[in-house]
């Protein structure tokens, strides 16, 4: 992106074009409108999402109404978070783990998913 580009237009377009999404959940993830918006868009677009739970348990994820978002957005965000909670993901404890191992594992999962998608596409071709 370059100066003057509309942030949401670029992000939304990229999410709609992607095949796989990775969401890195942290203790402050749910405080970010942008993170929640991107997650909701990935889930609404039925993208395969690989969650990484970094220093947080899935059960701790919830969007809180801080008065800055419309109630419809809060409902949308909580729905997307519920979807993510029940998706098999990776976990990372920053006190015990090696971040590069998690990144490698996530990358391997994305590549495997893309290869599987291509195989399914080839199998479906006439």
UniProtKB/TrEMBL annotation:
Domain of life: Eukaryota
Residues annotated as transmembrane: none
Pfam families: TIR
One of the protein's GO biological processes: signal transduction
Domain TIR: 1-99
Annotated protein name in UniProt: TOLL-INTERLEUKIN-RESISTANCE (TIR) DOMAIN FAMILY PROTEIN
């Amino acid at each position: 992106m370059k100066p003057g580009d509309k942030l949401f237009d670029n992000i939304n377009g990229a999410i709609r074009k992607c095949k796989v999404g990775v969401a890195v959940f942290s203790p402050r993830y749910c405080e970010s409108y942008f993170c929640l918006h991107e997650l909701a868009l990935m889930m609404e677009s039925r993208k395969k999402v690989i969650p990484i739970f970094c220093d947080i348990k899935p059960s701790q994820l919830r969007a809180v109404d801080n008065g800055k978002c419309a109630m419809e957005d809060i409902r949308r965000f909580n729905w997307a978070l519920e979807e993510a909670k029940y998706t098999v993901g990776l976990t990372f404890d920053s006190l015990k783990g090696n971040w590069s191992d998690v990144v490698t594992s996530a990358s391997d999962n994305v590549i495997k998913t893309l290869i599987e998608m291509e195989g399914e596409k080839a199998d479906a071709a006439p």
